[in-house]
Amino acid sequence: MKQIYSVVAFSLSVLLSACATFQTAGVYESGKQALYAGNYQTALAYFQQAAQSDPNYIFQSGLYREGIWTYVGRSQYNLGRLTEARQSLEKALAIYPDDYLARLYLGLTLLRSGEDSRGRKEIEAGMKGLYDWLEYINRTRPYMSFWDPLGEIRSEIEKSLRTLSDRDVDRQQLIASGEWIGKRMEDEIDLVRRDEQRQFRDQDFDRPPGSGIGIGIGIGF
Predict the structure, then answer these.
(1) Does residue 82 belong to any structural domain of this protein?
(2) Would you say residue 44 lies in a domain?
(3) Can you name the residues that pair with 58 across neighbouring β-strands?
(4) How many CB atoms within 10 Å of residue 26?
């Protein structure tokens, strides 16, 4: 009897966890829509709600991952709340050190806060991380959706990295370039996700009638 209770308790915990993750993902999506529309205060409210529900939530598109605290920090950055943005972005990197957008925005936050030396280092690390990731994914996963197919993001990163080596770098130009790369990378994530969904639907249509795979489980919330 105890074994039955243990199984039921475990199953219930898994169900509740799945439900919470589903709800967090929904709140996160609402936040992203607000972020795209430039409604940063609304986006921040959604992202903070998602972070409160699951502080370790990480969005994944293909092999690209970005933590919920990055979105919180970016919303705060866009609202000019730089002290809060720094705290959120540092928290994002503590959870997931390879979150290159978090590192890029942390650098931008520090630069705008007057911490030029560390800000430039973080911007450089974030940009190099994004560049190397884009190069790696296109070189090793040619059968997957293309990231930055025209090389626009990588070209801007190369240009910015060249200016970073200059002691008299134009801070405003560097900030504008970093913000463009951050926004363009986020647009790319969405484009790739839609491309992957379209490929999945096309594969579904090509499958012969009656040849279903996988198991579907319906859960009402």
Answers:
(1) yes
(2) no
(3) 67
(4) 13
Other CB atoms closer than 10 Å to residue 148's CB: what's the count? 22
Q: Centre a 10 Å sphere on the Cβ of residue 172 and count the other Cβ atoms it contains.
A: 10
How many independent structural domains does the chain possess? 1
Looking at the DSSP assignment, which residues form a beta bridge with residue 64? 61
Long-range contacts from 131-134, C-beta under 8 angstroms, 24+ separation: 131/157, 131/158, 131/161, 133/64, 133/100
Write out the residue range of the structural domain in which residue 155 sits: 58-203
**Quick one: which H or E segment has residue 73?**
helix 68-78
Q: Which residue is it, tokens 């060249």?
A: 162
pLDDT (0 to 100) of residue 23 = 66
Evaluate whether 126 touches 106 at the Cβ level (below 8 Å).
yes
User: Kind and range of the H or E element at 169?
Assistant: none
CATH number for position 89: 1.25.40
Look at phi and psi of residue 36 and say left if phi exceeds 0, alpha if psi is from -120 to 50, else beta. alpha
Summary mean pLDDT of the chain: 82
At 39, which amino acid appears? N
Residue 109 token pair: 């936050």
For residue 21, give both structure tokens: 């993750």
Closest residue by Cα to residue 104 from 161, 57, 49:
161
CB 189 within 8 A of CB 74: no
Other CB atoms closer than 10 Å to residue 39's CB: what's the count? Answer: 15
On whether residue 158 sits in a domain, the answer given is yes
Mean pLDDT by 10 residues, the chain (221 residues): 48 39 76 91 96 92 88 97 98 96 98 94 97 93 79 96 85 95 92 72 52 36 29
